[in-house]
Automatic annotation (TrEMBL):
UniProt xrefs under SUPFAM superfamilies: UDP-Glycosyltransferase/glycogen phosphorylase
Name recorded for this polypeptide: Glycosyl transferase family 1 domain-containing protein
One Gene Ontology MF term: glycosyltransferase activity
One Pfam family it belongs to: Glycos_transf_1
Residue ranges of domain Glycosyl transferase family in the record: 173-327
Keyword entries, A-Z: Transferase
Transmembrane spans: none
InterPro entries in alphabetical order: Glyco_trans_1 (IPR001296)
Length: 352
């Protein structure tokens, strides 16, 4: 079974959610029998081919010449792109429907994002993979005609990928961790406000914001600069994969009250490393957390501060969250994600 797996959007310098998904699938596809995987890049990305290959697990990226491909096999666009024309069956993965949420998008990207997504999902795509029931519901909200072509494959969590060597991050002794791109939809302003409410109560923990700047950075930066506790807030920028274990494990609590997610890998990563989690109620974050996290209203700094306070001071509750998290995270594995993805391939090719 031949698969042309599109790696055109991989960024070797900054591997975040979708990049993790691509690399973990490629790594675990090697355990699947009768699967011939060909990583492929667009011609326009061919100059970046060697950089992309530097992080591929033991594979070469092929040039992207769809007109020369035979109809034997299928194309998978793991980043909701369809960079192929012709007779190959086509599969795309939709990680979220954020492009339809105007308030979380740059104005210059909003209409283009809707147009691109609509073009993909209104095309003759043979199957659409979604990574959560929440994302499935969002796709059906805008594209109900796709119901028979939607396939759920939960993402995974891999502790071993986060362990590595290198210089220490120089972290404070006690801190609350937020890890994500610092952008509007991640509710960074809410994180800051909740932290301020906690500090007023006399807590000594600092706040570590780990992530590159994104949409809405100016407003976040103003909030940081004007915060009465700005000296207790540390920004680390993007943290490489090999340092994530240190970052999570040394944190007193992982705080992730995002407004909108398609999945939420960091929540499971924190749980897998024994760090208690406070995250948003509702949506996919509650879906993947179950009862293993403290669930809060992301619009209420007071409620979020109260949840953080309880995790930091109630030892029995804290330990219960840790133990539940250690049981919850292993329910989501990349092995299962790869196996479920292969089943979608088989269905599309009529081999199941």
């Amino acid at each position: 079974m031949r698969i042309y797996f599109d790696v055109s959007t991989l960024n070797p310098q900054k591997v975040t959610g979708v990049g993790v998904y691509m690399l973990q699938l490629l790594e675990h596809f090697s355990q699947e029998k009768d699967l011939e995987v060909h990583p492929a890049v667009k011609i326009s990305r061919y100059k970046n081919k060697k950089n992309i290959e530097s992080i591929l697990p033991g594979r070469k990226a092929e040039s992207f010449l769809p007109l020369k491909w035979s109809s034997d096999g299928l194309y998978h666009g793991p980043d909701f792109k369809l960079n192929v024309k012709g007779f190959l069956p086509r599969i795309v993965t939709i990680h979220d429907m954020i492009v339809f949420e105007e308030k979380y998008n740059r104005p210059e990207f909003f209409l283009k994002g809707i147009r691109d997504m609509t073009n993909v999902l209104n095309s003759s795509v043979d199957a659409v993979i979604v990574n959560s029931l929440f994302t499935k519901s969002q796709v059906l909200k805008y594209f109900p005609q796709l119901e028979d072509r939607l396939h759920l494959t939960y993402l995974g969590c891999n502790r071993s990928r986060m362990a590595g060597q290198g210089p220490s991050l120089g972290l404070p002794e006690k801190y609350i961790l937020f890890l994500a791109t610092l952008e509007k939809r991640k509710n960074v302003l809410g994180v800051i406000r909740a932290f301020e409410a906690l500090k007023v109560q006399g807590f000594e923990e600092k706040l570590v914001l780990a992530g590159a700047w994104g949409f809405g950075a100016e407003e976040i930066q103003r909030a940081l600069e004007s915060s009465p506790f700005k000296n207790d807030i540390i920004h680390l920028n993007y943290v490489p994969t090999e340092k994530l274990s240190e970052l999570y494990q040394r944190a007193r609590v992982f705080f992730f009250p995002s407004w909108y997610e398609g999945f939420g890998i960091p929540v499971l990563e924190a749980m897998s490393l024994g760090t208690p989690v406070v995250t948003s109620a509702g949506g996919v974050l509650e879906e993947i957390s179950g009862d293993a996290a403290s669930l809060v209203d992301p619009g209420s700094p007071t409620e979020m501060a109260a949840a953080l306070s309880r995790v930091l001071t109630d030892q029995a509750y804290r330990e219960a969250l840790i133990q539940k998290g250690l049981k919850q995270a292993p329910r989501f594995t990349w092995e299962k994600c790869a196996q479920d993805t292969v089943e979608v391939y088989k269905k599309v090719l009529g081999r199941s």
